[in-house]
Design a protein that fits this description.
alpha+beta; 2 domains; three-stranded antiparallel beta sheet
Length: about 280
């Protein structure tokens, strides 16, 4: 693959491409060929079409220069090099601060949640320690820079000449029982699963019919608005409605929850959720 350069404060510098066999390079090479599908699933790609049916949030678009600055800073941190001047990040921090202040008004804890449009920084140690709650622009930026997932996706964006975006949402307490993963083929719902497939969830078991109907109604409403014909969609069922949380491409690397890409053909619709803890116990359908 070509070796791009990061452009930071007027100086061309080598960045993540120094080590051609690095984990990041392997990630970028793997996903470059699927980038059109990935890009369509990024929040900034579907936000205008679906925002009325999604959890609330606000986008902060990044320029190519800002994208490269974040890449450079993360790379310098992990390789023990000096970081760029804090003033270089001023525009990003101010943009985050403004959006966080607005998001805090809608959070029960007065906090915000930040993520890249592609993925959330769920591997960030700082994020885990703070339960992914942030209340300032600098704190939010530090959380993003602490994430290898964010770094990988920024590098992929750089290689594909794409300008990404940061999403700022009010921090909301979303019960695991309310989170469902929907599988859409040809814009029709062909499968539904509990999102967290590690154990039975009593609230989900009790409200399965309600949640299923909420997702079905939302999928029917948005049938002509989805950015792709085939998608995997995460929903949160809150206040008697299913809200879009995230979109994923229909690819075997997308987590199947209680479905298997190898064993299920999605020919017949099913709603799967765990009802028992015993090994080998059937799901509810």
């Amino acid at each position: 693959m070509a070796t791009p350069r990061c452009y930071t404060q007027g100086v061309l510098t080598l960045s993540w491409t120094d080590d051609v066999d690095s984990r990041t390079n392997r990630y970028v090479r793997r996903w470059m060929r699927h980038f059109p599908l990935l890009r369509a699933s990024y929040v900034e790609s579907w936000w205008e079409a679906l925002r009325h049916a999604a959890l609330p949030g606000e986008l902060l678009p990044l320029s190519a220069e800002q994208r490269d600055l974040l890449i450079e800073d993360h790379w310098r941190r992990v390789t023990g090099r000096s970081a760029p001047s804090p003033s270089a990040f001023e525009a990003i921090v101010v943009g985050l601060e403004e959006r966080i202040l607005r998001a805090q008004r809608f959070s029960p804890t007065g906090a915000a949640f930040v993520r890249l449009g592609s993925r959330a920084p769920l591997d960030s140690v700082q994020g885990l320690d703070a339960e992914f709650q942030v209340d300032g622009g600098t704190e939010a930026l530090e959380l993003l820079l602490d994430s290898e997932r964010v770094f990988d996706d920024l590098c992929l964006a750089q290689e594909c000449h794409y300008e990404p975006a940061i999403l700022v949402r009010p921090w909301l307490d979303v019960p695991p029982a309310s989170e469902l993963r929907a599988f859409l083929r040809g814009r029709e719902l062909v499968g539904l699963s509990q999102r967290h497939a590690c154990s039975p969830l009593p609230v989900l078991i009790a409200r399965a019919d309600d949640y299923e109907r909420q997702v079905q109604l939302r999928c029917e409403e948005l049938a002509e608005r989805w950015p792709l014909d085939d998608l995997v969609v995460d929903f949160a069922c809150l206040e008697d409605e299913a809200w879009v949380v995230d979109l994923h491409p229909w690819l075997p690397w997308t987590e199947g929850a209680l479905f298997s890409w190898e064993e299920d053909d999605f020919a017949d619709y099913a709603f799967r959720y765990l009802r028992h803890r015993e090994p080998g116990a059937a799901w509810g359908e």
